[in-house]
Amino acid sequence: MSRIAFRDVTKRFGDVVAVRDFNLEIEDQEFLVLLGPSGCGKSTALRLVAGLEEPTSGEIMFGDVAVTDVEAKNRDIAMVFQSYALYPHMTVRRNIEFPLRTRKIPRAERVRLVAEAARWLGLEELLERRPSELSGGQRQRVALGRAIVRRPQAFLMDEPLSNLDAKLRVKTRAELVELHRQLSRTFVYVTHDQVEAMTMADRIAIMNEGALQQIGPPQQVYERPANTFVAQFIGSPPMNVVRATVAHGGDGLVANVPGGTIPLPPAAAAAAAAMNLDGLLVGVRPEHLLLDGGPVKATVRLVESLGHERHVICDLSPEEFAIVRLPADVPPPAKGETVGLTATAEHVHLFDPNTTLRID
């Protein structure tokens, strides 16, 4: 299997379109994350790869072979679900071994593969326990072990960490990245958690309402979002996006936003001017908005303390607000105080208000 590809795939459930005109190529041995909000179609896309759903139209390709009509059991993939789906009456050893037994793998080979998977996942001391005697993190590792022993060409994972507590999620994220490196297999991973996507993926494919919004390496998606949905879905707090009009300033074009003006990057400003738009959507990430007495005036509504940093929520107008990220060692302004904000041109993003697409 050199790659997994979606070719013009659409999936309908009655009148509901779950996946819409979907085109995506997943490279061999890539760790690709399908990211998006609940109901965006990412789990349906994964189930189409697994063969658990059939596309309404389009094709699923494994390498150069169309597998659209190939049964799930013949696709050489392993799936790990959000629920652990372990057999409660079986020990950890028997749960991990089960797919090998169904394939009639010789006993000596089964013992070797189970021992190897248990060693990778830190389950050697737990092999004789039953699922009811395990923690949530241990059960998830057993589910991973059951997938690993099959040595499939691709691993499909549907929100496998969502049932774990925060500390265990961090640990398991690192373990999955290392497991991907060791196994040299393709991983397709579904999540709504942008932190999981940013820390684990080679590339992120962001979905909304069944459609692919953008695909790229995590840092590229963060720094150059393709539209306002991606801009505000990736990043916490999300990117500030406000309506603006373009005007000529002292050193070039500026955006008139509620409360003041923001200088525009020359290339993006020229592109916006060429499009002859009546208005713009201007985006600035909270870490690139400075509380330094700048030209945009705002009123502090709330200061949120997160320990390592503070989020200052400022009202630009009755309809528009912005969030500023402050280091914890910087004294925050008081609630109700009027402050001046600055956004430097190199960190300003422009979007078409009609299509919400990036302008540059």
DSSP E strands, number: 20
What summary fits the major beta sheet? 6 strands, mixed
Tell me the Rg in angstroms.
25 Å
Structural class, please? alpha+beta
Tell me the name of the CATH class of the largest domain.
Answer: Alpha Beta
Average pLDDT:
91
Count of structural domains: 2
Task: Return the string of H and E elements.
Answer: EEEHEEEHHHEHEHEEHHEEEHEEEEEEE
Which word captures the global form? elongated
At a glance:
By secondary structure, this protein is α+β, with helices and mostly antiparallel strands. The protein has helices at residues 42-50, 92-102, 107-121, 136-148, 166-183, 194-200, 218-223, 228-233, 266-275, and strands spanning 3-13, 16-27, 31-35, 57-62, 65-66, 77-80, 154-158, 186-191, 203-208, 211-216, 240-249, 252-257, 260-263, 280-284, 289-305, 309-315, 321-327, 338-343, 349-351, 358-359. A 6-stranded mixed β-sheet has the order 6-7-8-3-9-10, sandwiched between helices.
List keywords for this structure.
360 residues, 6-stranded mixed β-sheet, Rossmann fold, single chain, alpha+beta, OB fold (Dihydrolipoamide Acetyltransferase, E2P), 9 helices, 6-stranded antiparallel β-sheet, 20 strands, elongated
Per-chain topology:
Elements: E1 3-13, E2 16-27, E3 31-35, H1 42-50, E4 57-62, E5 65-66, E6 77-80, H2 92-102, H3 107-121, H4 136-148, E7 154-158, H5 166-183, E8 186-191, H6 194-200, E9 203-208, E10 211-216, H7 218-223, H8 228-233, E11 240-249, E12 252-257, E13 260-263, H9 266-275, E14 280-284, E15 289-305, E16 309-315, E17 321-327, E18 338-343, E19 349-351, E20 358-359
Parallel strand pairs: 3-8, 3-9, 6-7, 7-8
Antiparallel strand pairs: 1-2, 1-4, 4-5, 9-10, 11-12, 11-14, 12-13, 14-19, 15-16, 15-18, 16-17, 19-20
Helix pairs in contact: 2-3, 2-4, 3-4
